[in-house]
Amino acid sequence: MSKNKQAKFAELETFSNVFQNFTPLQPALTCCGEKVAMKGHWKELFFRNGNPIVLELACGKGDYSVNLARQYPEKNFIGIDVKGNRIWTGARQALVDGLENVAFVRTRIEQLSEFFAPEEISGIWITFPDPFPRKSRALKRLTSPRFLDIYRKVCKPGACIHLKTDATGLFEYTLEVLEEEGITAEEVILDVHGMAKTPEELQILTFYEKMHLEAKKKIHYLRFRL
Questions:
Q1: Which domains are assigned to the chain?
Q2: Can you tell me the distance from the alpha carbon of 88 to that of 5, in angstroms, rounded to the nearest whole number?
Q3: CB 34 within 8 A of CB 91
Q4: Is 55 in contact with 115 (CB distance < 8 Å)?
Q5: Long-range contacts of range 80-86, CB-CB < 8 Å, 24 or more positions apart?
Q6: How deeply is 12 buried, as exposed, middle or buried, from its count of CB atoms within 10 A (0-12, 13-18, 19+)?
Q7: In this structure, are residues 38 and 46 in contact, taking their beta carbons and an 8 Å threshold?
Q8: Model's pTM, two decimal places?
Q9: What percent of the chain has pLDDT above 70?
Q10: Which residues contact 63 (CB under 8 A, 6 or more apart)?
Q11: What is the pLDDT of residues 127-158, one digit of tens each?
Q12: In three state form, how does the secondary structure of the chain look?
């Protein structure tokens, strides 16, 4: 591990907006070195308001979490990722900017129900996840039936799910999954940046999205409800 990564991991331990889980077999979150029981209590213990909570899954550097928090001060946002050195970027930016409606959780997405109570989540953004193109790894795709079931355990009925990706295969796969599950897509955009007027929340560019655009890739967007 590089010294830079080690320094980031050490600094994460001091961030008041970062919650971490290091022991999947014994689920527990720590913040600033202390164990905390957040499940079912995010609004009262961290955000200190009754506003809806929206997750960004596979958040990477947290570009969407931070910028959505700026756009929607009436909502709370939590970025989820297993890579601490990536989360560090967004968490630090949120602290510098004084954004109190955004937090980050370092854990595996499979463990969402360990840290969020039923119906605690009002919406989910899935931004440029690993597409896992091999069929043998389809279950790892964040829009697979397996993961939709995980989201149902923590989301309110009718929670809005957003997918933004450059991976055409994942995009088409997700549409197939929705059809199989009897879910109607509310919005399907094949080329986000080819629109005459791109919605403000879709104008947010992640670190990876900028790379994809430089490579002349089209960005796809899909919105549906569980």
A1: 3-225 (3.40.50.150)
A2: 10
A3: no
A4: no
A5: 80/55, 80/56, 80/104, 80/105, 80/107, 80/109, 80/112, 81/106, 82/106, 82/107, 82/108, 82/109, 84/8, 84/9, 84/12, 84/20, 85/4, 85/5, 85/8, 85/9, 86/59, 86/60, 86/61, 86/62
A6: buried
A7: yes
A8: 0.94
A9: 97
A10: 90, 127, 204, 205, 206, 207, 209
A11: 999 999 999 999 999 999 999 999 999 999 99
A12: CCHHHHHHHHHHCCCCCEEECCCCCCCCEEECCEEECCCCCHHHHHHCCCCCEEEEECCCCCHHHHHHHHHCCCCEEEEEECCHHHHHHHHHHHHHHCCCCEEEEECCHHHHHHHCCCCCEEEEEEECCCCCCCHHHHHHCCCCHHHHHHHHHHEEEEEEEEEEECCHHHHHHHHHHHHHHCCCCCEEECCHHHCCCCCHHHCCCCHHHHHHHHCCCCCEEEEEEC
Sign of CA dihedral 122, 201, 87, 18: negative
Distance CA 24, CA 104 (A): 17
Work out whether strand 34-36 and strand 29-31 pair parallel, antiparallel, or are unpaired: antiparallel
Give catalytic residue positions.
130
Over the stretch 4-39, which tens digit does the pLDDT of each residue have?
888 888 899 999 999 999 766 667 899 999 999 999
At residue 4, the pLDDT reads 81
